Every structure is written in C-alpha cells, then in structure tokens.
C-alpha cells in the first residue's frame, strides 16, 4: 500500500538553529532584533503604499477611458513588493551595502507594477498620461520596445518616484513600472520560465526558438495595431517619450 502524503507540510517559521540562538539571547539582543524587525516592516510598508498610489492612478486612467471612450487600453495591472529576502539577494548581486539607505538608493525595483496593454500605441499613451502627472518624478525610462534586448525582450520600463503621505509628512517612493503588450508578456513569461527551468544554461535550440518567437510576437503586435486602427478609423501617432 502506498503511503498517503500529507496535503500540507507545516514548516516551522524559524530553523532549530535560530530558535536555539534566540533562546540564549540576552534581552538587549532581543530588543535589537525587535527594532530591526520593525524597521524592516516600516521600510517595506512605504513601497506597498507607493505601489498602491501608482495602481490607483492607472485604475483612474483605465476607468476614464472606459467611461468616456468606451475603450479599454489597459488589459491588466499587477503589483508586487519584493520580500526582504528578495531585496537582500538583489542587493548582494548588485554589490549594494546591506543598510537601508544604500538599499533605497541602489535598488529601483523593490516596488514593481506591471501594466499589460492591448496595443503598442496604448503603452506609449498610458506612459505619457501617467508620467505627465504633476506629482510623478520620472528618474529613468528604458524603452526596450524601441530598442529590444538582444534576446528579443521587449517592454517599456519607467522608474519613477511617487509621494506617499505618511503621518510624519510626504515621502518619495521609487517604483518600477513595466509596460508591455499581451504578446510581449506572453513571450517574457515563457522566456523567464525557460531560464528558471534550465538555470540559465538554456540549450541553443530553445534560445533560437525564443528569438524566433520574439520576432513573431513583434510581428503580431504590428498586425494587430494596424487592424485596430483600421477598425477604429484613425492613424497612430509616432510615440515619443522624453524625460
Ligand atoms: P524580477 O523577478 O522580474 O523582478 P536591474 O538588475 O533591474 O537593476 P537591469 O537588468 O538593467 O537592472 O534592469 P532592467 O533591464 O530594467 O530589467 C529589470 C526587470 O525587467 C527584470 O527584473 C525582469 O522583470 C525584466 N526583464 C529584463 N530583461 C528581461 C529578459 O530578458 N527577460 C525577461 N523575461 N524579463 C526581463 P529582475 O530583477 O531580473 O526579475
């Protein structure tokens, strides 16, 4: 008879080694640890608020388009804030010191928002409408749609700062917003899974397949855009992003 696997294995939050260290820690060490935990919670909380601010701005634009033009340029919006483990792992990878000020300065994607649009022209239109808002400060634009990465990756990344109003006053929070079409997102998600599965040692035929798929996705975007404009009866204007 086969043994029945438990549905959920409950893992202890702390390892036995950490628990042993905590049991032996003096009250000073424990209060230092508590202060550190609170500081990390406050640090990440600002990014959650920053993401909410950007998400609300995008929701308003989406709703306005829906109500006034009967057209939805945004397919979906997803948000995430890196975990502290993720933050420290990226800081180590980029050679950023492990203090919160250096991390705040050195990492731009602790808070991330991904906006999926139907068409390339929608990407540029929404970027323009978001970044021209008075309280948004654009720090950097990486236009991988105009200049795709060598592997075929296409998306438009905007690193911006948005104010969050805390009890002690406003604070600028950095958020990375990635804009892409459905076709670009489909490709990026498969490419990401492929690199994850092969631990970056991807066989050449799969790399070639992904390059081919990136070209097909770009071609699909162009065709859909052309058909869309024909159906709606107007010509797209050339996108320009300036910071
Ligand atoms: P995750 O888990 O998605 O956050 P950076 O390392 O961010 O400081 P970089 O690489 O110049 O510097 O930034 P870039 O090019 O703006 O890329 C940042 C993010 O864009 C990545 O975050 C990915 O989400 C996405 N991205 C960039 N290039 C590729 C690519 O070739 N394929 C795919 N699928 N996604 C890409 P992270 O931190 O790598 O990962």
State the main characteristics.
alpha+beta, five-stranded mixed beta sheet, single chain, binds ligand 0O2, disordered N terminus
Question: How many β-strand runs?
Answer: 5
List cofactors, ions and other ligands.
ligand 0O2
CATH architecture of the domain at 34-182: 2-Layer Sandwich
> pLDDT average, as an integer?
89
Q: How big a fraction of the residues is strand?
A: 15-25%
Radius of gyration (CA) equals: 22 Å
- Terminal-residue CA separation: 67 Å
Question: Within the largest sheet, what's the order of strands?
Answer: 1-2-5-4-3
Class per helix and strand makeup: alpha+beta
Q: Might you state the CATH topology name of the domain at 34-182?
A: Beta Polymerase, domain 2
User: Under the CATH scheme, which class of the domain at 34-182?
Assistant: Alpha Beta
Order of helices and strands: HHEHHEHEEEHH
Shape: globular
Q: Low-confidence parts lasting 5 or more residues at pLDDT below 50?
A: 1-7, 236-240
- Largest sheet: number of strands, sense, barrel closure: 5 strands, mixed
Helicity range: 40-55%
Q: Count of helical segments?
A: 7
Name the CATH superfamily assignment of the domain at 34-182.
Beta Polymerase, domain 2
